[in-house]
Amino acid sequence: MTAPLWTLADFVAGCGGRVVGRPGDEISGISIDSRTIGAGDAFFAILGDTRDGHDFVPAALKAGAAVCVVAEEKLGTLPENGRYVVVDDVFAGLRRLGVASRARSHARIVAVTGSVGKTSTKEALRHVLADQGETHASVASYNNHWGVPLTLARMPASAAYAIFEIGMNHPGEITPLVAMVRPHVAVVTTVAPVHLAQFRDIEEIAEAKAEVFSALEPDGAAVIDGDVAQVGILVKAAEAAGARIVRFGESAGLEARLLHVSLQADNSTAVAEVLGREITYKIGAPGRHVVKNSLAVLATVVLVGGDLARAGLSLAAMAPPKGRGERHALHLGHGEALLIDESYNANPASMRAAIDLLGQTPVGLKGRRIAVLGDMLELGPQGEKLHVELAKALKKARVDRVYCAGPLMHALWHALPPEMQGCQSLVSSDLEAPLAAALQPGDAVMIKGSNGSRMGPIVEMLKTRFSSTRARADEL
Question: Same domain, yes or no, for 351 and 458?
Fold first, then answer.
């Protein structure tokens, strides 16, 4: 019989609350969204930016919530026959429960941050460690001030491994989050010009990422991109935390070093030396950036006591997460085109990686490489310049047509030669009709932009209109 996530007694003690009504004796899950409540779950009625979770308590109770965590001051407005744990502040109660979850855990804990590749690296770690023991990890990109404690609160006491994604967009944001997680291994995937509107320069970004080392467990390890110019900043912070330092990349002398790579359209094969051991392995997702991050994954597996060879085998079955390179065949009626969905967020580093990936992708007879690009946001005064600089990467990748959405991409549009200009608009939705009309068999189309530029709906439009299926590039 599966043990509950929480007993009621431990849950109440963890939240620091008191019981009102007759909650269930066992808690099977945690939610802050009443639409996802299942029977036996606990619902935290958090006060959001626009909605108060207390307004959805009746719906959560009706859906079978074992208990609703509510604020003392709101209790009088809620159904009298409800099942409650009453706390001073609901969000504070969730954070306390997260801390209590970490305190009871015997798992080997990993924290992952970085300007690019946080989620894909976290997902790769989830994938390979799940083959070696019970593994818990952040859902989607739950990496902020509510996502981290929620992920902690959901961690089963029986987990052998746990991976937490930690994000930030201003200095000082990582420190309180990693203090709750207390990792054994902290990974910085890379440092890149992201969120420049909130930072003085890229060195300040590196300092903010290095906060992830501030709460390492004794004898903890720091896994660091050894190829970036800011590696010294990261190493200095890791040394101050007393961490074992493992650098990964392609430079000589790194502890996890890529020795050889063969890049294919939908996978890669690599030879690497990881902490003194040579390993040859295949990765089920394409892209040189994915290969590089696999070095961090393999090093982390070793550092948490996992099996390196087994992890290498597991990487062969890894698929790209949604919006991060997922491929779909678009059935045009008289042939197929390939859709590469990179629509989940963008910054200069990830945009270049996606463009490079498009350049590696073969096209069919008379097919073209098409890039559909939305604005990269939060880049501050350098924004227009960083968009214009993408023209060089697009030419190097032999991209045939570029569709641009947004005022910043307008600057890139004018930097492109006329033969590369497909269509440009201030809003992404205006690209849908001309793009759909222009597609022809053998094309490979890649779509990417910051979330605020709303490139995802273009992906969904193409998938719906052309009855998409999951695809491999070599099927074109």
Answer: yes
